[in-house]
Structure formats: C-alpha cells, structure tokens
Amino acid sequence: MKKASSIIENLETNNDIYDNLVDNKILKDKYIINFINKNNLTKDVFEKNIQTFYEYYTFKKNMKNIGIKPKLKYDLGVVSIEFTETEEQKRLNYTNKFANRIKTEYVPKSILFSTFSSLTTHDEKLRVATNIIKLCDEKLNNKENVRGIYLYGKTGIGKSYLMGCIYNYFKDNGIEPAIIYFPEFARKIKAEINSGEYSNIIDKIREQEILIIDDIGAENITEFVRDEILVPIVNYRSAEKLLTFFTSNFSISDLSSVLSATKNTIDETKAVRILDRIRYLATPIYLDSVNEREIY
C-alpha cells in the first residue's frame, strides 16, 4: 500500500492533466492526505476516485456557512462523500423547530379555536372582550407602543379562553402570536438546561412580535424560573415595547409575594422590578365572572 507522498510522486511523472489539480490543490489538502494515509490508498484507487476527491475539495472550498459539512468515506475501493449537518446547524434547526412549535406550546387545543363570537353573554366578559378587540385593532392599524393587558381573576372564569380569542383574532388578521402556558413553559425550559439550548429558546420566545403568557404565578417559583426565564422575557419586551398579554389568578400586587419568595430566599427587590416591567407592558384588568370551565 502506498502513502500519499508516493501517490504524488507517481502522478507527477505520469499524467500532466493532474499537475495543477492534484499536485497543487487536492494533494495539498491536509484532510485528504490524512484520509489517503489512514486508508492506505494505492495510486490506482486514488485515480479511480479522483472525481470524488475533486468534488470534495471543491465543495469544501466553496461552502459558505451553509450548515453542512462533507466527509470522505472509503469502502471496497470506492471513495464517497457523506454530508452531515454542522453542530451549529443542528442547534439552529432544533431552536427553530422548538420556536415554531412553541407558538402554541402546551396550550389546550380547545383554546386555539376560541373566538370572540363564541363568548358567553356574561356582561363583564363582553365588556372586557370589547376593550381587548379595540386594543388588537390598534396594533393591527400599526399604532405605536400599544400596551397589552394583565387579566386576572378567580380560577375557571375564562381568562385563558379570552387569550385564545386574542390569539385567533391576530392570526386571522395575518399575525400569529406566541401563546404559552407559563408553568409548562418553565418546566420545558428547565428540562433543557443540560442541553444548553434553553437560552436560545427564551430568546426566540421573547422576540415574538406578540406574546401571550397564560397563568403567570401558577408555577412553582424558583430562582431559576424567576431570574433566568421570566426576567429576560419581561426585560426584553419592555425595552423593545413589544405587545404582551398576561393572565394570572393574582393581582399584580399579590403576584409580588409569589415572585419574591423562592425555596431558598426572599428577594422583594427582584419581584418589584419584574412587576414594574409588567405594569409598563400591560394594563391590569380584573375579570369578575362566574366559573365557566364546563362551558369551555
């Protein structure tokens, strides 16, 4: 079996057609030289596969961050090229896939079919819905700095359903918001800590043009949930003046005690900062309605 240096010598004295292509390019490529040596390729095997080596060399030379990389393989006298995704592309694909899915992540499917026209005729709910529609229309008419709402009230009165109405109202008018059930979103992010992808996912969700955060305060608050998930989202969205909706069983004032107390510490300062961002992003609205879970 002949090494790469021996192949070069033979080619140099054998055929001028390879002089520039092989001597000055292909056989100057460190990966190709290592491949020849590793597989003990003979001159004959190399010449039979010269087109594959040329394709490999050309592709590698010309690729510009396209997310795939070539790799040479050898089996029974045949050299072939295998294309694989780069690690960067794998991470990007994963993040994009999750970001697209997360627009409706862990939201009951029934909520995704909610519409304002199917609301119950409860006077208070209709009043709130009318105000929400006006707000949505302002956004659709490109009014700047439209504030969302922080809708709070007792469990089971249809807060999440109204968020589904908002989601579909915008979607039907050409803008699909992201709508997340925050306790499950936090659980999903915590599950991604070891993969190192959680910060990319948070970046994707916080950058959405319209974001609906359902049931904030219902999750088990830890320092990680508060400081690494919620804080980056509300800080970014308040700085960029992005339209955001919230629901909670707690008023903003009551949410303070929920966010300040974690398993290990009590930090009222951090809680106050979060609440200031929420107040900047959304107008608090109390929904006084009856339990309608059996309806929805």
Structure description:
The protein has 296 residues and is α/β, with parallel strands linked by helices. It is 51% helix and 14% strand. It is built from 13 helices and seven strands. Helix 7 runs parallel beside helix 8 (159-172). It is elongated. The mean pLDDT is 84.
Question: Brief description of this entry?
Answer:
The protein is α/β, with parallel strands linked by helices and 296 residues long. It is built from 13 helices and seven strands.
Q: Beta-strand percentage?
A: 5-15%
N-to-C terminal Cα separation, in Å?
Answer: 75 Å
What is the string of helix and strand elements?
HHHHHEEHHEHEHHEHEHHE
Principal-axes geometry comes out as elongated
Helix-strand makeup class? alpha/beta
Which ranges are low-confidence, i.e. pLDDT below 50, for 5 or more consecutive residues? none
What is the alpha-carbon Rg in Å?
Answer: 29 Å
Biggest sheet character: 5 strands, parallel
What integer is the average pLDDT?
Answer: 84
Helical coverage, percent range: 40-55%
- Overall number of strands: 7
Number of helices: 13
Strand order of the largest sheet: 4-5-6-3-7
Key descriptive features of the protein:
296 residues; alpha/beta; two-stranded antiparallel ribbon
Sequence-ordered SSE layout with sheet pairings:
Layout: H1 4-14, H2 19-23, H3 30-39, H4 43-48, H5 50-62, E1 68-75, E2 78-85, H6 87-101, H7 123-140, E3 148-152, H8 159-172, E4 178-181, H9 182-191, H10 198-206, E5 210-214, H11 223-240, E6 243-248, H12 252-260, H13 268-281, E7 282-286
Parallel strand pairs: 3-6, 3-7, 4-5, 5-6
Antiparallel strand pairs: 1-2
